[in-house]
Amino acid sequence: MRVKVARCPECGADVQFRSASSVLCVCSYCRSALARTDVDVEKIGKVGLLADVPSLLSLGMRGSAYGGFTIVGRLQLDFGAGTWNEWYLALEGGRWLWLAETQGRYYLTTPVGPVRSAPPLSELHLGHSVHVPGPDGGDLVMYVAEVHQARIVSAEGELPWRVDPNEGLSYADLSGPRRTFGTLDYGTEPAGPPTGYVGREVELAELQLVGGSGPEPERARLPATRAARMECPSCRGALALRAPDSTLRVVCPFCASLVDVSQEPLRALTTLARDRTITPRFALGSQAQLRGTPYRVLGLLRRQIEGSSFFWDEYVLAVGQDGRGGFHYLIESDGHFTLVRPAHLGDVHGSGSTRRYEGHTFHRVEQVRTTVTYLDGEFPWEVEVGEATLVEDFWAPGYLLSLERSLGPHAELVASLGEYLDAHELFAAFSLKESPPRPTYIAPHQPNPYRKGYEHRKHLFWRAIVPLAVLMVVFALRNAIMSTRIRFDLSTAAGAEPAAEHIFLSEPFALGKLSRAAVSFRLSAPTLENSWLDVDAALINDEDGTAYQFGAGVSYYAGVEDGEAWSEGSRSAEVILPSVPAGRYVLRVEPSWPVSRPCSFNSECGPLGSCQDGQCLRSCSASHPSCGPGETCLGDRCVLQALPYTIELYHGATRWRWGLFFGLLMLAAPLVSWLRMHHFEQRRQEDMVG
């Protein structure tokens, strides 16, 4: 990198321009701001002393990332509640980058030129989508996450444009896809198109920094770590900071003053009212190892929904020992606990009542306005009692996505992702001996405690039912191929009481393709009408005399009552004989049937009949039979006609009923789990509506 050396017209010290893109350089001895001209340098004013903002960076540091660069300048800006650093990184070939440093986080951006698609500053609002040229020539859709004004406080080293001390500028921070970050710099004239800067958040290790050769007078004023112990400006009590490099405000434990510790000298902003009824469940300063991450409790604040008595507590958690790993938040609300971490706004997609983030689909719960009503401990942002926020929550099983819009003078939109915590796991992590409180309602993002059991039982059901169904089909196919069918066509005798002469005894027949199988005995009487038929049967082995005795019966009644047709019973019946061995068999059938039509009342037998002993007695003659349907006149009496019936034997029957029974039995467990899970979801919806 070619270095141009000039002499300061104010104090005569040497001033070096290391980067060809540098326009201005601050003399490290007299603080004069010198603008480079074609011939020499021109003094354009004085730059104030640097604010005491801790940083691990310094001028002269070199990095091997991005083809190699050198830190050649720094700009300090203040937005009214804190100061941050913008480091100027000079690359080879006149190119350059900005590295913003705020609250221990670093954002590396590259200039992309004027963004003509951006609206005027007066029309810009949080969540506004803006098309910004990408650093690789593409087009990025980014969302406005912050709109504010800042003031240039100081500078050192070189800068790529002129700096007027105390000059104000307007800007908007953007959040884009794949964790990209951007800025619209409207400068001092917000009416024109802003200059765009696009990049992403980085870790210092990515930059591969070494060295540092800044002027000694300035470097001595930049300690790597702020003092962990300070003094309250109100009561002179000791303020012991647990995250000194990141804490911006702290509540004095002695006088309850809210102290601004962002820079020296410390300022007491207000005295907070003490609330003795509020005791932190997780003591300030306590530590926990939660899901593999170390946490330390820094502060506690309470938020209340405006217009209601509903509130929740938020604990500020430093990741690691001093907050260098960032900050998460632990929310406690009526027995529910949620671990919240920052989410990237640009990766939140969707509109209306649905959002998508990190593979989850979230559904809107509510939109409420909240106010901070209580503070204790230390905080990494400029918090205050009365701070108002518009919160929009979206839920997915186990997660809560929140979009928070600040309603104060500093307009900001941030996203966060909360994960529901098991209370017992949380209390064990903090070594609390007390029992967790019982929730008073079902939280929108509370995991369904029955879902895991249902999924497990459903999985077991399908693992069992599929082999059972396959096995049943295989046996059915085998039985269909190897089965033996025997059919007998029989009939009752009209007008005769069942007697021994009506017993049927078949000729011997073979049941033999399957060594042992179930036998289906099927009785059917297709012409049966308003009557019944019973049989006592026995399947007798012709070789060893083994008998399988059983009974079967059919009945069918139909009629019209009050103009409506009715029927009951069945004309067929089936009996299963399990595990009958192959062999030669004889079938013995002893039937029973009514001689006359069955009855219960005289009215059922017509005007000329009467009901006696459950049968209709009606006289008739050959010339005037006067018998009803299905009856015949025999011996001057109306009797039932002979009833043909069929008996079928099916050796090798598939017992589908048992398969269905076992299937329903296996279904019972997942069905009960599903009902409990469904009831839990119904209660969730009721609580959300309520």
Overview of this protein structure:
With 690 residues, this protein is mostly beta strands. It has 5 helices and 43 strands. The strands form 6 sheets. The chain has a 27-stranded antiparallel sheet that branches. A hairpin with a 4-residue loop joins strand 41 (631-633) and strand 42 (638-640). The radius of gyration is 45 Å and the shape is elongated. The protein starts with a strand and ends with a helix. Residues 213-225 have low confidence and may be disordered.
- How confident is the prediction overall: mean pLDDT? 86
Structural class: mainly beta
Rg:
45 Å
- Supply the number of structural domains: 4
Q: What share of the residues lie within helices? A: 10-25%
The total of helices stands at 5
Terminal Cα separation, in Å?
Answer: 67 Å
Approximate shape: elongated
What is the beta-strand fraction?
Answer: over 45%
Query: Got a strand count?
Result: 43
What are the key terms here?
690 residues, mainly beta, 4 domains, 27-stranded antiparallel sheet, 5 helices, 12% helix, elongated
List the helices and strands and how they pair.
Layout lengths: L3 E4 L6 E4 L6 E3 L5 E5 L4 E6 L15 E2 L5 E10 L4 E9 L4 E7 L2 E10 L14 E5 L5 E21 L8 E8 L4 E8 L7 E8 L1 H4 L1 E2 L5 H4 L9 E3 L6 E3 L8 E3 L5 E4 L6 E5 L15 E4 L2 E13 L5 E9 L7 E7 L2 E8 L10 E4 L2 E20 L8 E9 L2 E8 L4 E11 L1 H7 L21 H32 L1 E8 L12 E2 L3 E16 L6 E11 L5 E15 L2 E7 L1 E21 L16 E4 L2 E4 L12 E3 L4 E3 L3 E8 L4 H34 L1
Antiparallel strand pairs: 1-2, 3-4, 3-12, 4-5, 6-7, 6-16, 7-8, 7-12, 8-9, 9-10, 10-15, 11-12, 12-13, 12-31, 13-14, 14-15, 17-18, 19-20, 19-28, 20-21, 22-23, 23-24, 23-28, 24-25, 25-26, 26-31, 27-28, 28-29, 29-30, 30-31, 32-43, 33-38, 34-38, 34-43, 35-36, 35-38, 36-37, 39-40, 41-42
Helix pairs in contact: 4-5
